[in-house]
């Protein structure tokens, strides 16, 4: 159904992501193939292919393309990976993961966003993403364990419940820190109690908030 509107803008965005260090061709292709302008207000369609975050409903944001790309690259997505996303937001990140062949579960705490994305994703052909309404701090115990977990809101600590829902050898990518500017970290689960932590630069995110709305 996508007519590749803004094709030139999409290619320009992909070039920019490449320059910023995104080397995975499948991820870059996702930014060509997924119509990001459908995920934001129609009046601002041109903004969809700029490398910026943008406001969506419920005072939330669709993450900047570079942020989506780097978090996805750090997750090292393999076809068939079972991935939990915390913070569905616009649904764009979930679609990128599904595009790469992952089996995606995504949780959102804002009912308004959950309802609109539940209608919207199937309408653009992404009906395989499993959307859940709830508090991401609790993870999705019914579907655990996961190969990978991606948190798209800023956490003050590594959420222990989510760590428990990760397979041994699994990876969790999250922005973590105590101020507005957070460290992008990758946590690899070595055993039930041990992890290895790597850092990948500073990013801005909306906060990871407890409870549902
Ligand atoms: N991945 C999104 C980014 C959305 S911004 C995208 O591609 O557009 C982060 C989202 O996390 C917001 O929608 C916010 O409501 C949600 N969020 C924050 N705390 C949460 C929690 N405890 N559980 C689930 N979602 C949460």
Topology (SSEs and partners):
Layout: H1 7-19, H2 25-33, E1 54-55, E2 61-62, H3 65-75, E3 82-86, H4 92-99, E4 103-108, H5 111-123, E5 130-133, E6 146-151, H6 160-164, E7 166-176, E8 181-189, E9 195-204
Parallel strand pairs: 3-4, 3-6, 4-5, 6-7
Antiparallel strand pairs: 1-2, 7-8, 8-9
The structure holds S-adenosyl-L-homocysteine (SAH).
S-adenosyl-L-homocysteine (SAH) binds at residues 60-63, 86-87, 89-90, 92-93, 107-110, 113, 135-137, 152-153, 206, 208-210.
Q: Would you mind describing this structure in some detail?
A:
- With 213 residues, the chain is of the alpha/beta class.
- The protein has a single domain, classed as Vaccinia Virus protein VP39 (Rossmann fold, 3-Layer(aba) Sandwich), CATH 3.40.50.
- Helix content is 28%, strand content 26%.
- It has helices spanning 7-19, 25-33, 65-75, 92-99, 111-123, 160-164, and strands at residues 54-55, 61-62, 82-86, 103-108, 130-133, 146-151, 166-176, 181-189, 195-204.
- The strands form 2 sheets. A 7-stranded mixed β-sheet has the order 5-4-3-6-7-8-9.
- Helix 5 (111-123) links the parallel strand 4 and strand 5.
- Helix 1 (7-19) runs antiparallel to helix 2.
- The longest helix has 13 residues, at 7-19.
- The radius of gyration is 16 Å and the shape is globular.
- 42% of the residues are buried.
- The structure holds S-adenosyl-L-homocysteine.
- S-adenosyl-L-homocysteine is lined by residues 60-63, 86-87, 89-90, 92-93, 107-110, 113, 135-137, 152-153, 206, 208-210.
